[in-house]
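Because showing beats explaining, we let one protein speak, sequence and backbone structure tokens together, and leave readers to judge.
___
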Amino acid sequence: MGLLVFVRNLLLALCLFLVLGFLYYSAWKLHLLQWEDSSKYGDSKYDRLGFLLKLDSKLPAELATKYANFSEGACKPGYASAVMTAIFPRFSKPAPMFLDDSFRKWARIREFVPPFGIKGQGIRLCLCPLSLSCRRCIIVGNGGVLANKSLGSRIDDYDIVVRLNSAPVKGFEKDVGSKTTLRITYPEGAMQRPEQYERDSLFVLAGFKWQDFKWLKYIVYKERVSASDGFWKSVATRVPKEPPEIRILNPYFIQEAAFTLIGLPFNNGLMGRGNIPTLGSVAVTMALHGCDEVAVAGFGYDMSTPNAPLHYYETVRMAAIKESWTHNIQREKEFLQKLVKARVITDLTSGI
């Protein structure tokens, strides 16, 4: 009997020792993982979003070696995403420019309503991407900083020229070029006169609300567009493009720009105050995934010069800009400045 009690006590002590040992090991392991995570994304090296704190224009040694032999003007395959990953290790590529059934993050955009996803829209498209072996892309903003810069020919040299909303080309070719590959917009921002649209370009919808997808259906099927369908201003009733010339921008870029890259409030995945990225930042995010080299022109608002032109195509002054309910311009500026400083993107007009 005494032997059985001894063995029982021994086994209980052994079990207790094993449990304590497991708890100690788990606590140590958790502490180690937390230390590794903080050393990777913590205050010592990375900011709260995961960007390197110390950014400079000098490329990492391995990238400098990789691209050293490329002549000036030659397209550098994978350059933008490689540098982006170097300063922001959380960046993942690829993601298709347009909605695509094969996109591995499809589930993420199905879980969110517009603008961060397509939940409730019944959309399942498979549209072909742009076919180029190496893509040099430029996103042309609408800023007044473009005026009188004579960058037209330089902009037209890029393989893919992306324009935003209704920014005109005709009459401004000297400063903004004449080439348009993609024009990204939403209903309220779209050109309202059919003759304004470029003939050889893709019309790309950025859907920020469910009415935007409904509007596109009207446009594609040439149905009557009602002004009372929830738009905050008048919208185009006709777009002179056939279905093969129309795309829907992957909503993942709106989601990634807002929450991952800029750090805007999540708000349970719903549109709210200050958590919608501007179309410019969304286009840059798209280009980081879909282009080998990325440049911008016409970006940036200099509020210290109230008499400067707000847009290159009109006389409205900078002083007219008001605080935005949906956008956080300062946060976006900080995001874009990181990309310029680290040479992820090139700013032709130095407005950022």
